[in-house]
Amino acid sequence: MHASLTPAERVATLYEAHRERIYRFLMGQGLEPANAQDLVQDVFIKLFVAMTKGAEIVSEQAWLYGVASNLAVDYWRREGRPMWVELDSFPAMADGLQSKELTPDVAAARKERLQRIAIAMARLPKEQRLGVHLRMQGLRYRAIAKVLGVSVSTTAEWLSLAVERLRSAANE
Amino acid sequence: MNNHLTSRQMLAYLDGELSRSETHYAKDHLHSCWTCRSEVERLKADIATILDAQNESFSPALPPPPFPWPSFNTLLARNAPSPRSPLWARIFVQANSLLSPMRILVTSAAIVVLVILAYSAFRPRPVSAKEVLRRVQIADTNRAAITKDQVIRERVHIRKTMRGGNHSQSTQVDTWKSKTAAYWNAPDRDSVASDLEAEYKAHDIPIGLPLSAASADSWGRVAGGSPTVSQQGSDIDLSFTGSGDGATGAVERVNLLIQPETWQVKQMTLEFPDASFEVTEDDFSIVPVSAVSPELLAHLEPEAIPQMLAHSVAHSLPGTTASLIHRPVVDLDHAELDVFATLHRLNADLGEPVTVIRSSHSVQVGLWQLPPDRQNELRAALEPEAGVEVELAAPQRSSAISRPAIAPLITAASGPLYIPAESGGDDQRLLKHFGSAEKEQEFTDQALATSTVILSHLYALRNLQGQFPPEKEQSLPPEERAQLTALVRDHAAAVATSLNTLRAQLVPLNTAFHVSASKSVIQPTAINWQSGTLEALETARNGDHLLRSMLTTSQTPTTPDIALPQIGQELSHLSVELSNFNGIAH
After folding, report:
1. Counting one residue from A and one from B, how many pairs have CB atoms under 8 Å apart?
2. Whether A102 and A166 share a structural domain
């Protein structure tokens, strides 16, 4: 698919396209900004090394998020403390939303609902939060279980608990 | 039709994660059950809303990256082996097997240019004042996180110097802060503390902990002007120079000395037209309210006094008067110690996310972040203990920003402020030494794992010292003191063992890079194990940071010949500090 590109060129393209998203993914796991930025760079260097060794990478994005998750879990273990997510102020309502056929009241209620979910997301236990974020990236339960170091059944339980918590926050 | 699908089954069904037979059953059930079918539809809609929340609220509210992104070529230049190395040539050829010789030549020239660019990019460059203040704020948030059953005591040294002369006066003051109020417990007729307090009031700055982010930020705003950042020794100096409008009593200059390892303000200097005040921190601790005298609590939590008197325990801190003694039925010291012993027995005090908080009537153990099996194991061991409450759900918090239940006294190291000019681009020597990337990775994994074990035990000791400060240890009955000593010894012995392992692991590298064994320049001092723990943890964190700077991709990469002697020095310090407090624990 990308046979015309060298590994360095291919990873450079992916780095430009995904570094911000991987950074936010790591920040979402409770890392500090400088550590998250360091780890993003590690992830892409690891991808480059894997490609130059001829590793078979089916989905580059899944690979990136998988490695980022492993680095986040390593970081948790090193720090040995709860990983709470610090949220800055919420963004103002996007122009796109305002242009939809929503009355100001409905738009404000929707925004408030999304913020309640975001706060609940920040308060989830770190393993549940990581599980949900990996699921959002399309990872299957088995792959998530491997990252978290638990059984598929525990992963299913954690995901269900997390989704129920987020739903409760949404419907408060 | 009574056997409705569980929420877990519904989610797994939507995710396609049920087995074939389970899927068949779920489909059949959904065909026949309106309730479950409606619930599945609601779940689908809620998942879509959760995705919207992730993209529109959660992700955009995360702090942005603190540094500009380097280009990937810069990253490669920093991490890839040198073009002159045969190993590099091998990897280069593998990576570019389809390239023509001309393109290899052009690419090589580009890499040389990039190495030069990378060198210039990593020359010392200051972090902005805004970023420094942001980091101070984050560190302070972590350090000063308390529950309603805890208060903070910051003991500060204040020196007042009159302008135009050498006359200066000093004093030491305990400043206290609860979740709702703050109070400076200055000795009677202490003019230095009173004068400083008067300056706070004159400038409408709320009385709080003097060396906190809030205090620093308030004084900075009062001074006005653009803050400047400079390096002073190993510390960061952040200065606000006043507008110089000559207003009577206006602050002329505010200086903050910040430790880059912890991002904590270690000294604040306020310069006024007639005098200057220099405030330094002597001690910082989080204290259970049960150990604070009622008189002091009256200043911190007036509304809590009647309730507190009924539960107060007879452990006053130095400088506070003894509280009324109404021992609770359960001895909480004993319960707390039993909790730590149980966690230690089950290896749950080495980094697992377990929180232990002592309230006025119980010891609360938070297990909500553990997998269910581990929760059950620890719950079964802890619940039978009198005075212990096990929490399986996270406590509700009112703020959007959640904080750890037990604040780390030392926050995560964020790396030095200045990036050394010599750093980066020297990985090829390590690679050459190890012979292959796999062997280098194997060594890195092993060394970092050992360092992590050292840190885990020191964090466990840090938790113990936080819960059992010297005054509290002294008041324990002999049996309980012996139990505490055994725990301390156990962790200290584990640190010593891992320290020896790490030293042995580093011997081949030291030999290869001609680094001689270093001896510690520090001498053992007669300090208690509580203070020794904090020193040892700080040293171990420095060592760990250096190790990672040398072996991994880091914002602050370091070359082996720079890092190895420093690592050796830190490990020697740690050895001395360990023998120091280990001896006292005996």
Report:
1. 209
2. yes
Helix axes A152-170, B372-382, angle to 10 degrees: 90
Q: Do B54 and A36 touch (CB under 8 A)?
A: no
Q: Which tops the pLDDT comparison, B305 or B437?
A: B437
What is the token pair recorded at B249? 């009593």
Torsion over CA of A131, A134, A138 and A139, rounded to 10 degrees? -70
Closest chain A residue to B43 measured between Cα atoms?
Answer: A167
Residue with token string 């780095």: A15
Tally the residues of chain A: 172
Q: State whether A127 and B369 contact (CB < 8 Å).
A: yes
Taking CB atoms and an 8 Å cutoff, what residues of chain B touch A160?
6-8, 11-12
Say whether both A70 and A118 belong to one domain.
Answer: no
Same structural domain, A70 and A115:
no
**Which among A88, A97, A163 is the nearest to B61, CB-wise?**
A88
Among B461, B573, B480, B476, residue whose Cα is nearest residue B528: B461
Inside any domain, residue A122: yes
Candidate from A7, A118, A133 with C-beta closest to B61: A118
Q: Which domain range does residue A106 map to?
A: 95-170
When divided into structural domains, chain A yields a total of 2
Q: What is the ipTM of this complex?
A: 0.90
Spatial CA neighbour of B487 closest among B343, B366, B388 = B343
Going by their DSSP bridges, the two strands B363-366 and B388-391 should be labelled as: parallel
3-state secondary structure of B502: helix
Dihedrals phi, psi of B431, to nearest 5 degrees: -60, -40
Element (H, E) at B156: strand B150-162
Tell me the per-residue pLDDT of B499-512, one tens digit each, with 9 for 90 and over.
Answer: 988 988 898 888 88
The whole-model pTM stands at 0.38
Whether residue A73 sits in one domain with residue A100? no
Whether A89 is covered by a domain: the verdict is: no
Instruction: State the alpha helices, DSSP H only, in B33-71.
Output: 34-53
Counting Cβ atoms within 10 Å, is residue B65 exposed (0-12), middle (13-18) or buried (19+)? middle
Q: Is residue A2 part of a domain?
A: no
Query: What residue in B sits closest to A31 (Cα-Cα)?
Result: B412
- A147 part of a folded domain: yes
Q: What is the pLDDT of residue A162?
A: 95
